[in-house]
Amino acid sequence: MMIRFTTFSLIGAALVTLAACSDPLDTAQYAIDPAPAKDTLPNRLGRAELREISLPDYASGQEIAFQTPDGALRSSPDNIWADDPKRAMTLALARQISEMSGATVIAEPWPLASDPQRKIEVRVDRFLAAADGAVHLDGVYYVSPASYAASGGDTVRRFDITVPMGGVAGKAADPGLIARTQSAALGQLAAQIAQMK
């Protein structure tokens, strides 16, 4: 009887400890959510299908990464993205381009009966809250005709976007500040793609 009581007591204590460790209030989730587009740009894309954004491994993980002064990239399971970063950034980018230019940019797969005129692909080399106190978004984007029958040529453009976080260089940035600054950087990329510059 004593052994059974002790076993149940240990199991109960373990469950209470496990529940305390997985308190949802200990985990904060942040969204990629660029501010509504303010600029009105000419529609240079028409109907365009945006492929899923290609991100570095550290930027595509669930935890929000940042760089410390020693150059290391670090993250915490207490601060995570609210959605899969590739999916969230692709949808946000498509929405931003559409809002600011009037183009119909939709993340793949294309859901409409009428085919897209163009395809857009974005390959990100760096998307990082760096130790210098800024978010850096570098890479290349491609715009090409959706089919051989479509008009227009290929466009290849590099982008190199830097947005200050407003924090102190060399300090681990606040995850909410990182999320807001990365959202702003994504908005700038949307404007560049919409203008194809």
From TrEMBL:
Cleaved signal peptide residues: 1-19
Pfam families: ABC_trans_aux
ABC-type transport auxiliary lipoprotein component domain residues: 30-194
Keyword Magnesium set for record: no
Coiled coil: none
Keyword Signal: yes
SUPFAM superfamilies: XCC0632-like (SSF159594)
Domain of life: Bacteria
InterPro entries xref list: ABC_trans_aux
UniProt entry keywords in alphabetical sequence: Signal
UniProt-recorded name of the protein: PqiC family protein
Organism: Thioclava litoralis
